[in-house]
Each structure stands twice: as structure tokens, then as C-alpha cells.
């Protein structure tokens, strides 16, 4: 049986203006991500990895081509519909956690569910459950400043998963962590992927992380990516 496609780019091009020069960051980029699949995106700095994630998440517009998530083309959605679709289907994890400092771990994780119009009780239940799954049941009321770097990143991962999205886009999720903590975070991500069957697209410079993915896509900054 064919796996459901949760993310697809079709002939995507992205051209950026720098000074007086147009630079092609992505050219005719095509790929698909199936439900539950783990995909690593690798390439040199400036090859378009973060640009690709922004396009996939509907945060940026391609110069040409289409990007769709769960069958919806981002370009066909207005601002409100795009935000609602993103909240339902896409999670983000960045190199820096971007947690809200005045909120507790529980409140940070519950926030996307509250924005998605879950009840306060349901949002809190989901947040508690995920924080337990990432080993932070004893840190629910702690604010980011009271957490270690690894704990803050685990909170960010829980936040990305709280609405049970179809795909989570990650930009160097362990890049700001020490080696031991990075390995712990990677093991956590792999375990959550197996149990929840949420697709992961992970931008990384770390060969050990890429090796744990189902597939590796390499960007060269100009041409269509090559799948490995």
C-alpha cells in the first residue's frame, strides 16, 4: 500500500536579491515526504537548507513552483487559513528553543494547542503528557531560565508535537547542545517518531544524525536535490 504523502515540493525555485544580484538558492527542487518518514537535509552553508524549511512550513513563498502539506498548496491559502493549517499540520524545532521566558514549561507546550482552539483542559492534558514523554514531568512549572539547555530543547520538541502535526521541521535541533545532550535529544526524537508516526524533516550538519534518518537529501545551492 502506498504511504500517504504529507509534504511535497514541485519544481520549486527560490531566487533571492543580494545587493544588485539575483541569486538562485533553489532550482526545480522536487521531493516528497511520506507519513512517518524521517528525512535529513544536508549541504554546505548557503545551499538553501533553512530556506527550504521556511518554504515547506509556509513561512516564505517560492519564486516558482508549489509546496503542499497534506494536500493543501500553501499559495492557495489566505493568511488566516494558512496559519490554521500550519497549526494543525506543521511543527517547528529550531537550533535555539525560542521559548517564552515568562511562561512555564507546561504553558509553553500548551500554547500551540490553545491557539488551535483546544480547550484549556485539553491543551494542558496534552502538554503534561508530552512533557512526561520527554522526561520533564518534574519540570512542568519551571520557566526556561530555570532549565538546562537540553531541558529547554526537550520542551521545544514537546511544543512542536502538542497538536499532533503531520510533519515536524527541524533546523539544527541539536546544534547548540553538547555531544552527550545532543545524543539524548536524538534518541528522544527517534523514539517519538516511532511511537507517534509523525514525519520529520531535519536540517543538520551532523553526519551521525543524518545517518539515523530514513533518507538523506543533499542540497548544492543551485540544482535539484539528490536523494541518498
Keyphrases for this structure?
single chain; 228 residues; alpha/beta; Rossmann fold; 28% strand; disordered C terminus
Description:
The protein starts with a strand and ends with a strand. A hairpin with a 6-residue loop joins strand 9 and strand 10 (226-227). The chain has helices at residues 49-56, 79-89, 105-115, 120-133, 149-161, 179-196, 207-210, and strands spanning 5-18, 21-34, 38-43, 64-69, 72-73, 90-93, 167-171, 199-203, 215-219, 226-227. Mean pLDDT is 87; it is low at 223-228. It has a single domain (5-227), classed as Rossmann fold (3-Layer(aba) Sandwich), CATH 3.40.50. The chain is built from seven helices and ten strands. Helix 3 packs across helix 4 (120-133) and helix 4 (120-133) crosses helix 5. The protein is α/β, with parallel strands linked by helices and 228 residues long.
Amino acid at each position: 500500500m502506498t504511504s500517504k504523502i504529507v509534504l511535497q515540493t514541485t519544481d520549486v525555485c527560490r531566487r533571492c536579491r543580494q545587493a544588485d544580484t539575483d541569486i538562485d538558492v533553489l532550482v526545480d527542487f522536487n521531493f516528497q515526504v511520506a507519513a512517518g518518514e524521517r528525512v535529513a537535509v544536508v549541504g554546505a552553508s548557503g545551499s538553501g537548507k533553512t530556506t527550504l524549511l521556511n518554504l515547506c512550513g509556509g513561512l516564505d513563498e517560492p519564486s516558482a513552483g508549489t509546496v503542499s502539506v497534506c494536500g493543501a498548496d500553501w499559495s492557495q491559502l489566505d493568511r488566516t487559513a494558512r496559519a490554521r493549517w500550519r497549526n494543525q499540520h506543521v511543527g517547528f524545532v529550531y537550533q535555539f528553543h525560542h521559548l517564552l521566558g515568562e511562561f512555564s514549561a507546561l504553558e509553553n507546550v500548551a500554547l500551540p494547542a490553545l491557539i488551535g482552539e483546544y480547550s484549556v483542559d485539553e491543551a494542558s492534558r496534552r502538554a503534561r503528557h508530552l512533557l512526561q514523554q520527554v522526561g520533564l514531568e518534574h519540570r512542568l512549572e519551571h520557566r526556561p531560565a530555570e532549565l538546562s539547555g537540553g531541558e529547554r530543547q526537550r520542551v521545544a520538541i514537546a511544543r512542536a508535537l502538542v497538536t499532533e502535526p503531520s510533519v515536524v521541521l527541524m533546523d539544527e535541533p541539536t546544534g547548540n547542545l553538547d555531544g552527550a545532550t545532543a545524543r539524548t535529544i536524538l534518541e528522544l526524537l527517534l523514539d517519538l517518531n516511532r511511537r507517534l508516526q509523525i514525519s520529520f524533516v531535519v536540517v543538520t550538519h551532523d553526519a551521525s544524525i543524518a545517518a539515523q534518518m530514513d533518507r538523506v537529501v543533499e542540497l548544492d545551492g543551485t540544482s535539484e536535490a539528490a536523494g541518498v
